[in-house]
Amino acid sequence: MSRMSALVRRSWPFVMGVAACVIVGCSSDDNYTDQPQPPQQQESRNYSGNRDVVASMAFPTGNRNSSQLLVEEMAPREVRVGKPYTYRLRVTNLTNQRLSDVVLHQKIPADLALANEGPGAQQAGYNQHRDQNGQARFDVGDLGPNQSKTIEVTGTPGREGQIDTCLSAQFNPPTLCAVVMAVAPALRIQAYAQPEADICQDITYRYTVTNTGTGTAHNVVLREDLPNGLETTDGQRKLESRVGDLAQGQSKEVTVRLRARQAGRFTSRVVADSDAGEARAEEVNTTVRAPRLAVTIVAPKEQYSGDQISYRVTVKNNGDAAARDTRLRFGATPGMVEFVSAEGAEGRQLSSERQNGGQNLGTIAPSETRNVMVHFRTLRGGQVTVDATAEAQCAAPVTTPIESEIHQVSASALIVTHDHDPVRVGDDVTYHIVVQNKGHAADHDVVVIATLPDSEKFVGIEGANGQREGKVEGQTISLGSIPTLEPKQTMSWDIKAKAMQPGEAQLRVTMTSQTTTKPAVKIEPTKLIGAENNLHERTNEAPPVPQNQ
């Protein structure tokens, strides 16, 4: 690197005085502006202000337009011998490029004493020792584009006369350098895996890829062959994510969502490829958990038609994850039963089963159970199959069926009443005879026979259809045989008799049928009262009225 130097000379008068010390200081002006400058000439120029004398020189050509460095010296027009004074040296970079190693050399007369103490001298880089030619050295250092620095020098003249100082400058001009960087990018991967997940949830993996080397790593791609049972959300078994370029020290985070097809523990280790080579992340593990439902039903083996049949259903979670939003649905053989109600384990009444909704059992934790009592009404006889299906989020549905035999039973009942009571001798009494099948199966060959007491005389009979029916033999009245009596069907007769003598009368009615082989007997008592010798007489008379004599 070449160094440029030039010389500027300046002299000024002085007055006799006493010598003193010099203090040197340095200040910086980064944005050099319009300071007092001499006219642009090919050599140094001296000019005066009101009180100061200014000398300047542009290096190396003497012309500011073609030079790189401007040096100015500003000093009082006149100083006194033995009295210290201060002059300034200002150095300005005239270019838009950095100038390095700027040094000023100034020849100092032997009878001009400069100070050599204080922090200002060290800051200015002033070499307090003069060389053999009597020159002082000022290390200005580097100057940025258009930057200025000012050095203050304090000295004391030792004699009268003119002091001549010559100033030269050295610096390294701007240079052209070509730099080629040798780089070595290197990748590092930090992997994070969601430690636990339900089988129906996406699993989050996060990878942070960092270029820990120098230079740029190009075309970074994350790759992995996923383990069995783990795949991307679009069903792929291979993971590939393009990261792009990574500058030196740059990091990028990649988030990947995977989905498990089965429960278990999965291990993942992703690889980063680039033009800088390959890097492997540490293994990360995720445990995938799943609920597993079991349904148990307890029900009667047999039940009678028309009665309520109840089922106790237990839903248990045998898995290792919570079964959320668990629902229980029921099905049954069509036409056999109808839903009545459902109750929880604590007796809490559950809402009736909605269409495709079922009973809401909430969330069942692992190893926990829910118990439900379900009540149906039987409609007819035969075998009925009831099934219970439990479903939950993230759980496979499970169905358990159970069979019960529904028996139909006929129950023909005999009912006898009468009106009125008591009955006067000579009046009629009406007996109402009713046969009703209260069961759920038809009864057959129903026979009803009524026997009047001796104190009553048969008058007539009327059936349910308004026709006179029955066979009368003495006091015994046969009401005929009913071939079939359907469930809930009723047959009735009205028998009219006349009270013949007072006393306690009893009507006896019997009924037999195919299902009632032992006769059903009803005794209907009636109070008969007589009218003879039922009158007696009584008279009261007032006392006589007194007579006037």
Report on the architecture of this protein:
This protein is an all-beta fold and 549 residues long. It has 4 domains: 4-172, Immunoglobulin-like (Sandwich), CATH 2.60.40.10; 187-289, Immunoglobulin-like; 293-407, Immunoglobulin-like (Sandwich), CATH 2.60.40; 412-529, Immunoglobulin-like, CATH 2.60.40.740. Helices cover 1% and strands 59% of the residues. It has 1 helix and 44 strands. Strands 2, 3, 4, 5, 7, 9 and 12 form a 7-stranded antiparallel β-sheet that branches. Strand 10 and strand 11 (135-143) form a beta hairpin. Mean pLDDT is 83; it is low at 1-44 and 117-122.
What's this entry about, in short?
This protein is elongated.
Cα separation of the termini: 191 Å
The main sheet comes to: 7 strands, antiparallel
Strand content: over 45%
Q: Structural class, please?
A: mainly beta
**Can you tell me the CATH class of the largest domain?**
Mainly Beta
What is the count of helical runs? Answer: 1
What Rg do the Cα atoms give? 64 Å
Work out the number of β strands. Answer: 44
What general outline do the C-alpha atoms trace?
elongated
CATH architecture of the largest domain: Sandwich
What's the average pLDDT? 83
Say which CATH homologous superfamily of the largest domain is assigned.
Answer: Immunoglobulins
Secondary structure: helix percent: under 10%
Predict the CATH topology of the largest domain: Immunoglobulin-like
